[in-house]
Amino acid sequence: MKLLFLLAVAGVCLTLSFVWREPWIGGVGLLVAFAAMFTDRDDVHDDDKSSYETTKSVRNMRSRNR
């Protein structure tokens, strides 16, 4: 949700830079987009570290290439 909000703010800033012909507003928009890109977290659950047993989907993925 935070990523979409920050990208929307960056898009508004970039649009305003073309409307008002002020390049610094576009620079602020690019900085906001850059911050959004690097503050986005990937909350993927790691099955290997949390339990002794792996899930069935992980076992199927591992055995597929053998």
From TrEMBL:
Name of the protein: Uncharacterized protein
Originating organism: Actinomadura macrotermitis
Region Disordered, residue ranges: 43-66
